[in-house]
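Q: What would this chain look like folded?
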Amino acid sequence: MKSQDTPFFGGPLDGRVLPVLLGITGHPPKTYRIPVPDADGGPPTVLVYRRVQSSRSKRLGLHQGWKYEYDPEGKQGRGPAWPWSKPEGKGDATPEPHADE
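A: My prediction, written as structure tokens:
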């Protein structure tokens, strides 16, 4: 798999550049979650970073790359982009049998 050195801004990882695995589209993931173990043995704290565009070229305005910015609230994403992409009901796409069968 391919990786790309990506800068992190804000939070505990401010100023670090880490290799991030790229997806099949060639982009890093939109959200990067880092579990940090608790010193007292409790549940780990999860640091959340969101992918943002790092810059644009001056002349043509083309995309120059990605960076991650710290999200202190760490909210979940907004869900599927299209409501019809997720099957309703029992959670599977198997159709119900007809009564006359």
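The first strand starts at residue 3 and ends at 9.
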